[in-house]
Fold this protein.
Amino acid sequence: MGALDGIQQEIQQVAERAGDSVVGIGQRWGIGSGVVTGSGQVLTNAHNVRAEEVEVTFPDGHTATGQVLGHDIDGDIAVIGVETGDLPAITWATDARPGVGTPVFALANPGGRGLRVTLGFVTGVERSFRGPRGRRITGSIEHDAPLLPGSSGGPIVTADAQLLGLNTNRLGEGFYLAIPADEALRGRVDALGRGESQRQVRLGIGIAPVDVARRMRRAVGLPDAEGLLVRLVEDDSPASRAGLETGDLIVQAAGKPVRHTDDLFRALDAAANGAIQLVILRGADERTVDVQLGGAGGDTREA
């Protein structure tokens, strides 16, 4: 048997062992993939889920409407409850921290348009990216298995068809990032399956980073200042109740300068007594704003 024959056989075996665990998520717009992790449960990315109900397409082509049991938007994972019948749950790898050069197989079923299986290699570890609301997700696996649009939420697996990670973010240079399927992820998935959604403290604003904020201030003749520009304010959010407005520049949070998006997120995570003090520039005027934090009410991110 030649080398190419061996590779072909490996890919076919992975498709046979794990293909029935991979489903399509959504239809028409916003399609993705998902993977069966237990009876009646499908794991996917949170960014694939835009409502409490979601269409799931199974390997035989039939569809069913699933219910979102729980989601962690900042971690970009969601668990859908849907009748999975006799579809097998994927097997979790005992070691989901592969090293650089480890071969991986990526599976997807973009929006239910058919199973795809590709081969690649781990090209980097402990990579980070920003989730759907701008928070940094660390510890990701980078690999170069080719993937179509709509593949996020599908798994990467070993040659034994064991789950190594959940594809979530295309880097744009032919590489993909996957959330490692380690014990931490397994615990989060179990919690989401019980309906325990993860909710981070939020202001309820959309923000533009420092470089964008600087250009926009210069465009209207305002002096340079480092900070995050408020691009939108959600109705009935902590930010709106505190009086923040579109165009405000956040320059301090909890007494510390805000030069990057992560500075604001760290201040929110450390906020004591459910409140945070912000210093903003409104035009050229500096103001102090006390925000009572509560539930969630160009390059824009959400905080």
